[in-house]
Amino acid sequence: MICKMKPGFRGLLAAGAVALTATMPMKAQAEETYNLALLSDFSGPYADIMPVLAGGREAVFKWWNATQGKELGVTLNYKNYETRYDAAQVASLWPGIKSELNPIAVVGLGGPDVAALSERLPEDKIPMFMATAAYGFAWKEDAWIFNPRPTYSHESAGFLAWMKEQRGGDEPLKVAIMASEASPAYVDMAKGLELYAEENPDALEVVEVIYTEVQPTDLTTQMRRVARAGAEALIVQTNTSIVVAAKRGLQANGADIPIMMSSHNGLPASGGALGGLDQLEGDFEAYGMAVAAEEDTPARQFYQTLVAEYDLDAPWNVVTAMGVSQGLYTVTVIQHAIEENGAEGLTGEMVREALFAKPITTEETHGFLPTLTFTPEAPFPLKGLKVNVGTVKDGKITIEATGVDVPDVHKW
């Protein structure tokens, strides 16, 4: 059994490339113990949000072990591995992870994990569960990497369709996109939306796709072009650094163009990097999971339970919600597998089969995710896709829209 190590968040950041362990002790009545490998980035481009996301998913594992796991006679152990959000690092670590843990599932972080392990996991028969939206380059049948949300291009297309409806009129909505060739995921975010615009010229016009560094210093010139092209929205689904540089560039040009962010680089993270949420007044985040706003929702109530009873030390924001939703989605699939196969001898292959056997209901994820129905045809649900939209009003995050339909986005 793996020994428990649970350093504070400052310790996590200081640990850098050192693998971090956060393992629950086995309950006396537990008969079976299974391991989860957690891929993390405490020292790379997502170091600013990783402690919060990690705290969310680990609190869920504690909750599950103490409740459902206890009743089923199963304990889930877990261990973090520092990947620096780098595909080469993930590929290098994987043989050791598999040998050390023999996990029944991997809890992934982002595009580098998908790029590094998409060919390995089918051979090893270990599924990986993500928190993020999916990627076009992973959109294939018989997958072993699964996302509870559709692709980033699906999510941005849903937001832009909603924005066009709010604006009114028949003219296509003009949009600019921020991307970076430093990550295959960032390139993918742009390619899918470009194809959607090409196939739906009456709905959307892409005025420019701007490729920049992962941590750009100044985008003033690029934002001047965006403003002059008449863009009505700027899509930045990459990271907080690019949001900050884009926002500063827009401000330098006096351009009032709303930015749409995703969950991992959303309003609280980007607002904090900019010096306060007030800097993002009128900007948006949109994704296929609950918006962490002030309203009293089932998701917020469950978050409060994790804080009060399971040592969650993280604010109520979209990054925490992403970690919690990932944890809930993962343990629900594992619980389905246990209910189908029994507690003894559970394998990664059984966990994957359970994903297709029955839906993951929104009640099982406490409202963090819609009801999800997976098929072997894609690594994410293909039907009933929806996004929620959050914004900043008077310096506070509020829910702007829920259950926004996602238009038909074709595979690219």
UniProtKB/TrEMBL annotation:
Keywords, in A-Z order: Amino-acid transport, Signal, Transport
Coiled coil residues, start to end: none
Keyword Transport belongs to the record: yes
SUPFAM superfamilies: Periplasmic binding protein-like I (SSF53822)
Cleavable signal peptide: 1-30
InterPro entries attached to this UniProt entry: BCAA_transport (IPR051010), Leu-bd (IPR028081), Peripla_BP_I (IPR028082)
Organism superkingdom: Bacteria
UniProt family annotation: Belongs to the leucine-binding protein family.
Name of this chain's protein: ABC transporter substrate-binding protein
Organism of derivation: Litorivita pollutaquae
